[in-house]
Task: inverse folding
């Protein structure tokens, strides 16, 4: 995956010409559209699992399903994964001791990093300016303002990289499922 940050006035020629002028523009977008869709579908599925885990962990706190839905309706993906990580951390520090506690906290930190990266990857796809894709498949994914000017960040979207992103999100979902099951197993053995 190649990412380029360029000043607004110093447009980088390495990005290549714009596909919109190409008569095969729509065909080229069709080649990558399913990958974009799978990123969104898989991240939404991961987000649903985050919601379910939060509901499961807060269910014993007196929140019924409707109150839980009200609480979670105000959370986006980042809010959900950060909330879940904090709830997991609280449960781990309250219920576990010694090596089990440290082991699960280490695993939680790894899970946290994966959940964060999965959301960042999804945002690159969801917020990309697909109407302005270059011949070299560079797409603007973000604009930053700094004290010295405006900068655009472009990412090159190659099919193998897109497939790796899909796999990463799926693996993150599996990590979440595995972590949740391991924590439940540890609770049941107490």
Result:
């Amino acid at each position: 995956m190649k990412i380029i940050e360029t000043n607004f006035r110093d447009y980088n020629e390495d990005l290549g010409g714009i596909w919109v002028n190409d008569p095969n523009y729509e065909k080229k977008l069709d080649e990558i559209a399913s990958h974009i869709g799978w990123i969104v579908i898989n991240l939404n599925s991961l987000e649903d699992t985050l919601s379910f885990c939060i509901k499961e962990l807060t269910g014993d706190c007196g929140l019924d399903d409707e109150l839980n839905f009200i609480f979670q309706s105000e959370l986006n993906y980042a809010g959900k994964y950060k909330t879940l990580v904090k709830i997991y951390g609280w449960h781990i520090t309250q219920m576990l001791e010694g090596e089990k506690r440290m082991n699960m906290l280490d695993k939680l930190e790894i899970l946290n990093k994966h959940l964060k990266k999965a959301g960042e990857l999804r945002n690159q796809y969801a917020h990309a300016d697909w109407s302005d894709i270059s011949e070299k498949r560079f797409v603007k994914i973000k604009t930053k303002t700094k004290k010295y000017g405006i900068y655009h960040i472009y990412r090159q979207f190659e099919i193998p990289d897109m497939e790796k992103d899909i796999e990463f999100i799926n693996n993150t979902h599996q990590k979440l499922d595995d972590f949740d099951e391991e924590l439940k197993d540890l609770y049941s053995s107490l």
Summary: Strands lie at 3-7, 138-146, 149-156. The mean pLDDT is 88.
